[in-house]
């Protein structure tokens, strides 16, 4: 019984700490950005670079851009993947798109940065981009015969050209500003501009009660719940209720609940950016540079959102809400389970298996990533747990690359679209490349000179590019009328 | 025999929402419509759809990549 209670407390503590302050400043804007990208960026603006006639120098980067800008959930990923593969640029770019989407989208990037640090988020996106293109090229190399003989129908699907509107661009840019102002750790944002003391005598007692409810051990990387955190959790619940009433049927028009939900979301972001601390006999509220910056960016969002037409605005809010429903609930459950499990994992086990950056450790991390299936984004708190328990950052990156790319869901989808032999090759390549990515980043963390790492990466890239060019030349001579 | 309405999509949240909206629209307009869900990727691609959910009324693709309003769907139903 005690053991169960111990686990539950760990789970609740982990969840409460995640929902408080810093995670909200990243996740709320990220959900709105993801919604805006889905609703406001016309797909043709990017897919026109993915037609059959496009040169590979253009189509691979375009596939990666599509992965990061257009694809946040499988609804978008599946049709685009099948479309690029069957009627567009072909197997290679389709694979690059598929590989890069789970790591390159704004939700994954913002969340990784907030939980694991900006450097790690940067390493994840850079290596996923490089290796995503690498895996795409390698697949195109392996199956070039297939690619030459694929569906020869015209690609009018990719012919449309569209531009993203000015107001939509403004909304996206100001939302990104909210995200950056809320999460960037620099002095002007952390500085206190003014402080106010509210005579709320109960604040100290409330903090003591919270610490009693959610005890934490800072040495294990655990965070407790502050007075500010409890306020934010309450506001979050209120947003949830208002959104359910105001956003569920937003397609048919906005109502009073819609405005309540949006106003609450904005207020939550500003409160999260303030600094609230209990002092003797009251509560100190510090106005930070961050709160001012977040408020200014929110005003810009409002300014541009008013210029969108009603249909665009409703589509944007609907997509944002859909992502929240689809991802947030599972994320909350996942964070709880991670917190509960963590109480039972001894740091010595993790250090013994993956405490160093070598091939065994990276391979173990990849195998774990392949066999464990975590819902979207839950891989990030899992990674945080491993990091706190002493896992080396190299194998950690290998795990983060292999897990979302090789989930059961994505493997089934790939198999349905392109058949078993290609799927097997894809899985093998992702495993190998993930180990390579882990070793690369691990070497960087361990202080191997960047020049050596860069040299190694350039060598591999050159080898791949050379092999591809040679194959293209060979394919062109063997299939004179070929689609290459 | 009612009008044929096809919902194209692999079964994600948006496709379910579209189906609900379309059913409400048909019921509200008193149109006798037959609903078919198309989840097979190959069949979806054959309609020339790159972004789900897609909506086919009669034999015409009327909308893809977004959820239309009930008013729009009623117009398409009336035109079909």
Q: Descriptors for this entry?
A:
heterodimer; A: 484 residues; mainly alpha; 2 domains; three-stranded antiparallel β-sheet; globular; disordered C terminus; B: 80 residues; alpha+beta; Glutaredoxin; four-stranded mixed β-sheet; 4 strands; 41% helix; 26% strand
Approximately how much helix is present in the residues of chain A? over 70%
Strand portion of chain B: 25-35%
The shape of chain A, in one word, is globular
* Strand order, largest beta sheet of chain B: 2-1-3-4
CATH fold descriptor of chain B? Glutaredoxin
CATH second-level architecture of chain B: 3-Layer(aba) Sandwich
Account of the 3D structure:
The complex is a heterodimer of chains A (484) and B (80). Helices cover 74% and strands 4% of the residues of chain A. Chain A has helices at 2-19, 22-40, 44-47, 56-69, 74-86, 91-104, 106-116, 118-142, 144-148, 166-183, 187-190, 202-213, 227-247, 256-273, 289-307, 310-342, 347-354, 359-371, 379-388, 393-405, 408-418, 420-445, 450-478, and strands at residues 192-198, 275-279, 282-288. In chain A, helix 1 (2-19) runs antiparallel to helix 16 (310-342), helix 5 runs antiparallel to helix 6 (91-104) and helix 18 (359-371) runs parallel beside helix 20. With 484 residues, chain A is mainly alpha-helical. Chain A has a three-stranded antiparallel β-sheet with strand order 1-3-2. Chain B is of the alpha+beta class and 80 residues long. Chain B has three helices and four strands; from the N terminus they run βαβαββα. In chain B, strands 2-1-3-4 form a four-stranded mixed β-sheet. In chain B, helix 1 links the parallel strand 1 and strand 2. In chain B, helix 1 crosses helix 3 (70-79). The longest helix of chain B is centred in the first third of the chain and has 17 residues, at 13-29. Chain B is globular and about 30 Å long. Chains A and B meet through helix 5 and helix 16 of A and helix 1 and helix 2 of B.
């Amino acid at each position: 019984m005690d053991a169960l209670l111990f686990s539950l407390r760990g789970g609740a503590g982990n969840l409460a700490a995640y929902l408080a302050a810093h995670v909200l400043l990243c996740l709320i804007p990220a959900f709105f950005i993801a919604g805006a990208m889905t609703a406001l960026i016309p797909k043709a603006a990017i897919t026109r670079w993915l037609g059959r006639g496009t040169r590979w120098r253009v189509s691979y980067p375009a596939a990666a851009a599509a992965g990061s800008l257009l694809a946040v959930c499988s609804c978008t990923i599946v049709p685009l993947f099948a479309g690029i593969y069957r009627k567009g640029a072909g197997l290679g770019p389709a694979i690059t798109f598929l590989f890069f989407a789970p790591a390159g989208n704004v939700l994954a990037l913002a969340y990784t940065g907030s939980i694991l640090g900006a450097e790690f988020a940067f390493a994840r996106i850079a290596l996923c981009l490089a290796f995503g293109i690498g895996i795409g090229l390698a697949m195109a190399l392996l199956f070039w015969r297939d690619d030459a003989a694929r569906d020869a129908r015209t690609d009018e699907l990719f012919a449309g050209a569209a531009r993203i509107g000015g107001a939509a661009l403004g909304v996206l840019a100001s939302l990104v500003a909210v995200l950056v102002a809320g999460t960037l750790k620099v002095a002007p944002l952390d500085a206190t501009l003014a402080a106010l003391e509210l005579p709320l005598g109960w604040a100290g007692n409330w903090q003591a009660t919270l610490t009693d409810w959610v005890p934490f051990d800072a040495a294990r990387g655990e965070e407790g719940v502050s007075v500010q955190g409890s306020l934010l959790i309450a506001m979050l619940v209120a947003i949830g209720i208002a959104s359910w009433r105001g956003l569920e049927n937003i397609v048919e028009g906005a109502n009073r609940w819609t405005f309540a939900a949006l106003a609450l979301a904005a207020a939550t972001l500003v409160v999260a950016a303030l600094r609230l601390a209990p002092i003797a006999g009251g509560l100190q509220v510090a106005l930070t540079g961050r709160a001012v910056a977040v408020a200014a960016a929110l005003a810009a969002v409002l300014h541009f959102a008013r210029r969108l037409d009603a249909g665009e605005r409703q589509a944007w809010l609907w997509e944002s809400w859909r992502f929240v429903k689809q991802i947030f609930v599972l994320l909350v459950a996942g964070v709880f389970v991670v917190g509960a499990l963590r109480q039972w994992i001894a740091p010595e086990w993790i250090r013994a298996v993956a405490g160093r950056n070598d091939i065994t450790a990276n391979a173990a991390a990849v195998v774990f990533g392949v066999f464990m299936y975590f819902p979207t984004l839950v891989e990030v708190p899992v990674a945080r747990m491993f990091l706190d328990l002493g896992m080396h950052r190299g194998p950690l990156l290998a795990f983060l690359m292999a897990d979302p790319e090789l989930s059961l869901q994505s493997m089934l989808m790939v198999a349905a679209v392109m058949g078993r032999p290609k799927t097997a090759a894809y899985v093998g390549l992702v495993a190998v490349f993930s180990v390579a990515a882990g070793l690369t980043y691990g070497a960087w963390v361990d202080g191997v000179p960047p020049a050596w790492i860069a040299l190694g990466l350039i060598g591999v890239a050159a080898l791949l590019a050379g092999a591809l060019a040679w194959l293209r030349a060979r394919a062109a001579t063997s299939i004179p009328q070929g689609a290459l | 025999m009612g009008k044929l309405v096809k919902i194209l999509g692999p079964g994600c949240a948006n496709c379910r929402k579209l189906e609900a909206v379309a059913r409400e629209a048909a019921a509200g307009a008193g149109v006798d419509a037959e609903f078919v869900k198309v989840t097979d990727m190959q069949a979806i691609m054959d309609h020339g759809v790159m972004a789900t959910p897609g909506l086919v009324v009669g034999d015409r693709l009327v909308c893809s990549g977004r959820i239309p309003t009930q008013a729009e769907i009623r117009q398409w139903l009336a035109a079909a």
